UniProtKB/TrEMBL annotation, chain A:
Catalyzes the removal of elemental sulfur and selenium atoms from L-cysteine, L-cystine, L-selenocysteine, and L-selenocystine to produce L-alanine. GO terms for molecular function: cysteine desulfurase activity; pyridoxal phosphate binding. Keywords: Pyridoxal phosphate, Transferase. SUPFAM superfamilies: PLP-dependent transferases. One of its GO terms (biological process) is cysteine metabolic process. This is Cysteine desulfurase. Belongs to the class-V pyridoxal-phosphate-dependent aminotransferase family. Csd subfamily. It catalyses: (sulfur carrier)-H + L-cysteine = (sulfur carrier)-SH + L-alanine. Transmembrane segments: none annotated. NCBIfam families: sufS. Residues 38-407 form the Aminotransferase class V domain. Its EC number is 2.8.1.7. It comes from the Bacteria.
From TrEMBL, chain B:
Signal peptide: none annotated. This is SUF system NifU family Fe-S cluster assembly protein. It comes from Pelagicoccus albus. NCBIfam families: SUF_scaf_2. Pfam families: NifU_N.
Length: 419, 138
């Protein structure tokens, strides 16, 4: 081996558990602009395995019916499948009970639900809610709206130039006025993995309830809500190989029991009269109307799929793949990786000389490489890091070292145009 | 290279984006700012209060938006200010009506390749829409 070969980044081997996963995703066979699709926009939404697509067909072909209200067989079967999906999620997160899983439209609605039903009734003007500078808009705007309604104050943990949480003043930020603490596990824009467990513990010691935004963590890192010690956790189905329009809020049952309904109507009632209404117990209390039944069932199928591959295998492989991608991207002249967190998962964000990320995205698209460009719904974070927009490559269990090589080749073509 | 891409990033467009013309702030001018919320790009367009054919811009934007802004300021300087509004409206509507063949004329023709990339049309129209904001405020 000569010296230049010795310094070349070495691609990770694809482990046995992931060897055949690409064949499970039919979309990966398609071409884009005449080139094989290289899908590196997984932080925005992941592709769906055949078993999830089949679950949608199966539901509409054999089980379609409303749930929790019919005595006929189809309704009984649909209800069973919907509730079984809840159980799968509870087990996947190691919740203490199935009733701790509330189906929502996604992570955004899950955060809004917690803000409206749990936090708002407890707030008074001058109280504080703590988030971080690393949040995506879904974990900023619901809290801003809540502060506008109540006169509470939003406080923000800063981030360092490396895009880590700057915890120097955490003891001042988590104070006696803090009534809720909501924090992101993995940054969608940069890929920073936050060491959330000690932070959640610190909040707990001070009696402050917590929400963990796991939208970008749940598909990459094994999660145990009891071990992490969060009171709530939010995630979206479409980022873990499931359908869009479905997600969940995990909430400790003891807290869910104290919460007011989120929306009214349909399945959340126990008894209605014009004199007054009583509500069902959680989680039904928070699932008004006919829910996204097939979404929940297919999310269950996605969880089955993810569990069959194994989150530990996925985490290990993806971390090797990201390390390889970082090394390869670092070799491109003028390319700057944004942030250098100690622990990165899911995504790498970068800029390349004067080439605008949207122009990078367009050139890459014509090479079949799908990435995201822009502010990634994290405007405050990008402003803090001094970049208006970045290009972001985000990875999943079906990405390979060849995908990284295709990204690098397409970026070199981009450089010819703009650098 | 992909022919659509070659058509998108024509030399004229790249020339304008790398060295945009009239890329400065005009103090005490009529001005308007617009953002593309999809990507966070932002542009401010200025029109001199007295010498109305003098239009300039500052922006944090992609190559297509920068080139479009640069060519816009040049084109408007050639037109009678009374024709500015209708020209800008016509430019925006030509891009938005994708059924029509784009016929932009002159250097602006180099923006025609954008039509093959629907997600980038807003990049080309943003400077013109911002200029129309000034006209709205007048």
């Amino acid at each position: 081996m000569n010296q230049s070969e010795a310094t070349q980044p070495q691609p990770p081997a694809i482990p046995e558990a992931l060897a055949s996963v690409r064949a499970d995703f039919p979309i990966l066979q398609r071409t884009v602009h005449g080139k094989p699709l290289v899908y590196l926009d997984n932080a925005a939404s992941t592709q769906k395995p055949q078993c999830v697509i089949d679950a949608i067909t199966r539901y509409y072909s054999a089980e379609n019916s409303n749930i929790h209200r019919g005595v006929h067989l189809l309704s009984t079967e649909a209800t069973g499948a919907y509730e079984a999906a809840r159980g799968k999620i509870a087990k996947f997160l190691n919740a203490a009970d199935d009733s701790e899983i509330v189906f929502t439209r996604g992570a955004t609605e899950a955060v809004n639900l917690a803000a409206y039903s749990f936090v708002e009734p407890k707030l008074q003007a001058g109280d504080e809610i703590l988030i971080s500078s690393m949040e995506h808009h879904a974990n900023i705007v619901p809290w801003q709206l809540l502060c506008e309604r109540t006169g509470a104050i939003l406080r923000v943990i800063p981030v360092t130039d490396d895009c880590e949480l700057d915890l120097e003043n955490i003891d001042e930020l988590l104070n006696e006025k803090t009534k809720f603490f909501s924090i992101v596990y993995v940054s969608n824009a940069i890929g920073t993995v936050n060491d959330v467990k000690p932070l959640l513990a610190k909040a707990k010691q001070r009696g402050i309830p917590t929400l963990l935004d796991a939208a970008q963590a749940i598909q990459h890192i094994p999660i145990d809500v009891q071990e992490l010690g969060c009171d709530f956790l939010a995630f979206s189905g479409h980022k873990i190989y499931g359908p869009t329009g479905i997600g969940a809020l995990y909430g400790r049952r003891e807290l869910l029991d104290t919460m007011r309904p989120y929306q009214g109507g349909g399945d959340m009632i126990s008894h209605v009269s014009f004199e007054g209404t009583t509500y069902k117990e959680p989680p039904s209390r928070f699932e008004a109307g006919t829910p996204h039944i097939e979404g929940a069932i297919c999310l269950g199928a996605a969880i089955d799929y993810l569990s069959s591959v194994g989150l530990q295998e996925i985490e290990k492989y993806e971390s090797e793949l990201i390390e390889y991608a970082e090394a390869k991207l670092s070799e491109i002249d003028g390319l700057k990786i944004i942030g250098s967190p100690k622990h990165r998962s899911g995504a790498i964000s970068f800029t390349m000389g004067d080439a605008h990320p949207h122009d990078i995205g367009t050139v890459l698209d014509t090479e079949g490489v799908a990435i995201r460009s822009g502010h990634h719904c994290c405007e405050p974070l990008l402003k803090r890091l001094g970049v208006p927009a970045t290009a972001r490559a985000s990875f999943s269990l079906y990405n390979t070292p060849d995908d990284v090589d295709a990204l690098v080749a397409a970026l070199k073509k981009t450089a010819l145009l703009f650098m | 290279m992909n022919p659509d891409l070659q058509n998108l990033y024509k030399q004229t467009l790249l020339k304008h984006s790398k060295n945009p013309l009239n890329n400065y702030e005009i103090e005490h001018s009529h001005s308007a700012t617009k953002r593309n919320p999809l990507c966070g790009d932002e542009i401010t367009v200025y029109q001199d209060r007295d010498e109305q054919s003098r239009v300039a811009f500052t922006a944090q934007a992609c190559s297509i938006c920068l080139a479009s802004a640069s060519m816009m300021t040049e084109k408007l300087s050639e037109l009678d200010p009374t024709d500015h509004k209708s020209f800008a409206e016509d430019f925006v509507s030509k891009f938005k009506d994708r059924s029509k063949q784009l016929d932009l004329g002159g250097e602006l023709e180099s923006l025609s390749g954008v039509q093959a990339f629907p997600s980038r049309i807003r990049c080309a129209t943003l400077p013109w829409e911002t200029f129309l904001e000034i006209k709205k405020e007048e």
